[in-house]
Amino acid sequence: MKPSETSIVIVGGSSGIGFACARRLAQMGYRVVITARTQARVDETLAKLAHDIAGQPLDYADRPGIAAAFARIGAFDHLVLAGAGPATWGAFESLDRDAVQAAFASKFWGYFDTLQAALPQLAKQGSITLVSGAAARVALPGTVGLAAVNGAIERMGVTLAKELAPRRVNVVSPGLVDTPAYDWMAPEARQAMLDGAAAKLRVQRYGTPDDIAQAVAFLMTNPYVTGSILDVDGGVRLG
Ligand SMILES: NC(=O)c1ccc[n+]([C@@H]2O[C@H](COP(=O)([O-])OP(=O)(O)OC[C@H]3O[C@@H](n4cnc5c(N)ncnc54)[C@H](OP(=O)(O)O)[C@@H]3O)[C@@H](O)[C@H]2O)c1
Description:
By secondary structure, the chain is α/β, with parallel strands linked by helices.
């Protein structure tokens, strides 16, 4: 099928990794629909993109709203789940249980509910790409909360690759990527955090949102890949 006849829904397409996916896939000629939590964020995003992209509000916190969004979107070919939940950093001993539960409620259950709502509209020959996080793939002290949420998403994705076949299901596992998720940090502290992490990696750089978008485009377009977890993490697993 030609890209111009192929439609992709990118949940969390208003920022960071999801936004880079929307831009890259639209440049490749695909028909892209992005979601953000509010109509205002959708409108803001569409105004930033030169391409003819559509948008729908979708908030993980609103389960009936998720179903309504997919009913409005109608039939489509590929789903990319790139929405974020609250990040839960911290040593396990003092890790706030409520914060981890909130992270599950948002990202894990958000992905779960979105997948269930999207399935009736998703083409049998289509694909699903889930964005997890490197904390689930490498034992980094202080990231138990992130590891648990993203690990659950990865295992769900691999099992769904069998259950939902012939649809393909893959996961991309990003390492540290400079996105608006870190806008809460003071600029100097943010740069120091990114540079410090980059210095420890074999590749001596941190990730860009388009590094991840490139991997998402590969997983989405390669008809021989399913049940894979693709690490796009600068080699953080190598230590
Ligand atoms: N950046 C990293 O270093 C990194 C590393 C590993 C994994 N990841 C994962 O990559 C994914 C994207 O992260 P990012 O850094 O690109 O984040 P980001 O720039 O903050 O973008 C987050 C996106 O998720 C949407 N979103 C947030 N809460 C939502 C909710 N309750 N319901 C639906 N959508 C929601 C946001 O929509 P609004 O515009 O409405 O807020 C936005 O489109 C996340 O799952 C994150 O865990 C990121």
